[in-house]
Amino acid sequence: MNKTFISMLKQLLCFFCVIAGNHALAAFPEKPVTLVVPFAPGGSNDIVARQLAKQLTAQWGQPVIIENKPGAGTAIGAAYVAKQRNDGYTLLIASSTFTMAPSVNKKLPFNPAKDFTPIAMIGEVPLVLAAKPNAPGKDAKEYFEYLKRTPNLNYGATGVGSIQHFAGVMLSQALGNKMVAIQYKGGGPAMTDTMGGHIEFSIGSMTQILPQLRNGTLRGIAVTSTQRSEAAPNLPTFQEAGLKNYEIQQWWGLLGPANVPSDIQTFINRSVNQALKSEELIKFLATDGGKTKPMSVADFTTLVNDGLKRWDEVAKQTGITAQ
Known about the structure:
By secondary structure, the chain is an alpha/beta fold. Helix content is 45%, strand content 20%. The chain has helices at 3-27, 44-60, 75-82, 96-104, 140-149, 163-175, 187-195, 206-214, 262-275, 279-287, 297-318; strands at 33-37, 64-68, 90-95, 116-131, 153-157, 179-183, 201-205, 219-223, 249-257, 291-292. Helix 4 (96-104) runs parallel beside helix 11 (297-318). The relative contact order is 0.18.
């Protein structure tokens, strides 16, 4: 077999490989895609996931299904996704908690830096401290004074190492008074117990809590961003209420199992970024204090990796532990 023939054969094989690869990408998705939400229904992750699923379903012509797998501070849902095929058909709706939990729980059933593929950023929103309806104090400063002088008050969190847990520990440290985190499987149940007066407050995303503030079933105290939110301009920031340097925000994004092919990553990223341009999604997030935030795969990967480092340092500084 001469060299010319071998060269031609190699070129032909490469041609068919490219055609096959392009066909595979063009066909994605050929079946329903599942977005795994590692929280119970009703929380901000679940709300955002359902809005995004609606947009992607319209784009792809395939159902985008929401599957809630709550528990263990998002570890159950995340571990499930990490074990799935890396073909883009099972994705995790991740949030800031994904980068926080590993700093507290060193025995997670997955490696957050190695077992996942960051694919797309969705958006971000400030948190808001929402107290039970009959909470004391006429304003945020007086309420924080109440928290400061009353030990062992309970607040709602959504798992050890969750953003709510971190927000509460940071608040406890800022006030110089110990508070107790009551762990729930999602923001919805924590909010329900706050409304019922079973716990003092919850610090959750504005997307989830704002509707309850509007109907008066929860009392808004302050927001965790450095500036007031246009969705609730009457609420001061923690910093305005006297807690200097207190700032934390929630983001949402899409992760896949490790080693999702780059062409599938790019396709999903572009689809999500296109969805984030829709007026419906922009207005939905803005109404409840959030905003869309399109990113490239590379930029979102950097955000995730930087978050893992940042919250590990915060955990060490605050002494937050799994106990």
